[in-house]
Amino acid sequence: MGSDIFGAAMLDYLNNTYKEDIVTRSSISEDDTIPVPYLFRSYAEMPIIEQKALNLSKGKVLDIGCGAGSHSLYLQNKNIDVTALDSSKGAIEACKKRGISKTINAKILEHNSTTYDTLLLLMNGIGIVGELNKLGDYLQHLKSLLNTNGQLLLDSSDIIYMFEEDEDGGYWIPPGKDYYGEVDYEMQYKNEKSDTFPWLYLDYNTLQRAAILNGFNCELIVEGEHYDYLAKLTVAKQ
């Protein structure tokens, strides 16, 4: 993403120099903000989807795209063996400052040194895939990180509600995109801007089809209040 927007904001918050939030600009909506304190929320402040995922976590856990480490910290305090992974150097520094004992500063596709019982991809963590045509490669890599009887817990949203339906029941898809859930983002914090980067929102049916094609079983665990959901993927028996 270019500048480490999230990392800089998280460290400012921990160093008590936080004064403004992260601004997001996307290809499908007006400017929005991500309140930095929300990245440090407690379990009680998390939506039901995240709480459910944490309650289902078991064994050796990898928290992918951990951010400020709120999920990892909760699991660690429950004496669960959790490792926080993020490509943001600042995010990992923030996790360490918060007392998370196991951290990895890397992109998920670069991490292949060990396997886990639970993989977490929360706060629309599957968005890191960026484009639908890359989903299979990511799912295959994630499958390689799972122990026998392991699970992948991920949440996402169906953003079809953001598009207008035409008279024939179809939807307009932005030019240059193969799927309506492919969104381009840019972020700004203080005077620093990120490069434009792709992010993927997946409707459940599309996720389920991709999961089956890549050797997973896919189960809808819970639906949220705004077109979002939590899914569990497990490796299908041969």
From TrEMBL:
Naturally occurring in which organism (per UniProt): Cellulophaga lytica (strain ATCC 23178 / DSM 7489 / JCM 8516 / NBRC 14961 / NCIMB 1423 / VKM B-1433 / Cy l20)
SUPFAM superfamilies referenced in this protein's UniProt entry, alphabetically: S-adenosyl-L-methionine-dependent methyltransferases
GO molecular function ontology, one term from the record: methyltransferase activity
CDD domains: AdoMet_MTases
Alphabetic keyword roster: Methyltransferase, Transferase
Top-level taxonomic group: Bacteria
Entry's Gene Ontology BP terms: methylation
Protein name per Swiss-Prot or TrEMBL: Methyltransferase type 11
A Pfam family that the UniProt record links to this protein: Methyltransf_25
Spans through the membrane: none
Matches recorded under Gene3D superfamilies: Vaccinia Virus protein VP39 (3.40.50.150)
Methyltransferase domain ranges (all copies): 61-116
